[in-house]
Amino acid sequence: MTVAVVLYTSDLRVHDHPPLHAALAAADEVVPLFVRDPGVAAAGFGAPNRLAFLADCLTDLDDALRARGGRLVVRAGPVAEEVAAVAARCGATEVHMAAGVTAYAHRREERLRGSLGPRGVALRVHDAVVTAVPPGAVTPSAADHYAVFTPYFRRWSGERLRPARPAPRAVPVPSSVRGDPVPSRPDTDRTSPGLAAGGETAGRDRFARWSRTRLDAYGEGQDDLAGDTASRLSPYLHFGALSASELVQRARARGGAAAEGFVRQLCWRDFHHQVLAARPEASVRDYRTRNDRWRTEDEAAGDIAAWREGRTGYPVVDAAMRQLRHEGWMHNRARLLTASFLTKTLYVDWRTGARHFLDWLVDGDVVNNQLNWQWVAGTGTDTRPHRVLNPVLQGRRHDPDGAYVRRWVPELAEVKGGAVHEPWLLPEEQRARLRYPEPLIGLADGLARFRSARGRD
Ligand code: FAD
Is ligand 1 within 6 A of the CB of residue 369? Predict the structure, then answer.
């Protein structure tokens, strides 16, 4: 009887899963394994929202494997040691896993090679599990990655994707391997009350429902903050409960401009992956320095706290920051304008904002979070690095009748229509009654400080 291990990381699904497929083809039995590595929490990535969503994903994966005659084996400990122990226990000769792009993923792979190699166990790393097109598959002629999105998108669109694979019918798991109980959601009040349910089943249901009812409105309504036409699939993609490659193929099969717009957004995800794969240090260091001398956290402590808590006095910024805490998710447009407000209007280091997002976002990941923050801060791949989003104009454009602000900022619930974006223009006695803060800073002052810091005044 031959045995192979499938090490699950950011790919918690049974559909379109090349490592599971390959392991089943290579061996009589497989051990689907997930290791709770204390290194992840120690590195500050154990945010309660993501731990809760992860627990849902693991439970759902275990159910899916049980429905196929198997189960998920969960262990806790340093990943390389746990995998080696499981492989030894069941006599496995191969371990299959998805390729990762972060520095952490590279270190994990090295450790696994170090612990498995001497024991004669082969590590097989599969591409295009986490992304649709693997990082490095398309490159410009004179560089190791694309630094500009549009030419990347053109090349990426011409790549052939492997056909999406169905879930296997049966997953035979050896009875000799023991594991811990599948973890449940952590018991903490730091989990967002409006957090979505995780798992492959929930993700597939969401995609099916969204593509039936909302996808057609996606193109035009993509930036409508109150309309909620975005897919909200990002957490499922983050944990790999959905396959990016399968989503691209299903959207293309449907066709039309809205579906193509959705595919373009999925390409942004691959774009950032190929940047970080080539420049892993960009998770913490400026990709392109602008020689910023950001205000220190001490100097800007009051502003940072107001931004985090959603009381900057700019309604659309405050609405978005409160949505983040309540749902562990934020609309892309809201992420853009809150990040621009912090880095450019308040002139605070993008790393401070990225850290707060990672504390709360259920889809928070090093690749997309850090590189989008850099994009907004102008230290990343944006070709217009010094642009500043005006929160009043953004509010009027993307929340014209103010419904999004009223949903999240109850102090302003009585203000009708778009007037909600400029509460300082309301009659004095109404303003006093609303108990909504005055703006932290005038937009012109923020802009002048930023332009002078960037040497552009
Ligand atoms: P949709 O609009 O439905 O898009 C479909 C999918 O495309 C998303 O699920 C996502 O996987 C991908 N996508 C869309 N836009 C982007 C983008 N700009 N970059 C990368 N992928 C994209 N996304 C994350 O997944 N994790 C993060 O930690 C994260 N942090 C961000 C921080 C900032 C400051 C900004 C500006 C953006 C960030 N994003 C992040 C990207 C984007 O905002 C979210 O992916 C998107 O809002 C998720 O909602 P959705 O699934 O409804 O997106």
Answer: yes
Question: Among 362, 372, 374, which residue has the most ligand 1 atoms within 8 Å of its CB, making it the best to mutate?
Answer: 372
Q: What are the tokens at 317?
A: 């910024």
CA neighbours closer than 13 Å in the CB half-sphere of residue 216: 2
Cα torsion angle, 168, 92, 19, 9, sign: positive
For residues 93 and 194, the answer to whether their CB atoms sit within 8 Å is no
The CA distance from 102 to 110, in Å, is 13
3-state secondary structure 271-305: HHHHHHHHCHHHHCCCCCCCCCCCECCCCCHHHHH
Residue range 3-129, CATH number? 3.40.50.620
Counting ligand 1 atoms within 8 A of each CB, the residue from 368, 373, 381, 382 with the most, and so the one to mutate, is: 368
Q: Give the pLDDT confidence of 129-150 residue by residue, as tens digits.
A: 999 999 999 999 999 999 999 9
Q: How far is CA 331 from CA 229, 351, 361, in A?
A: 10, 20, 11
Task: Please give the CATH topology (third level) of the domain spanning 301-453.
Answer: DNA Cyclobutane Dipyrimidine Photolyase, subunit A; domain 3 (1.10.579)
- CATH code for residues 131-160+204-278: 1.25.40.80
- Phi, psi torsion values for 52, nearest 5 degrees: -65, -45
Alpha carbons 174 and 178: distance in angstroms, whole number: 10
pLDDT, the chain, mean? 96
Cα separation, 228 vs 337, whole angstroms: 17
Q: What's the rounded Cα separation, in Å, for the pair 179 and 181?
A: 7
In Å, what is the CA distance from 291 to each residue of 340, 379, 452, 455? 17, 9, 12, 10
- Structural domain spans, the chain: 3-129, 131-160+204-278, 301-453
User: By CB neighbour count within 10 A (0-12 exposed, 13-18 middle, 19+ buried), where does 121 fall?
Assistant: buried
pLDDT grade for 423, boundaries at 50, 70 and 90: very high
* Residue where the block lists tokens 């226990």: 89
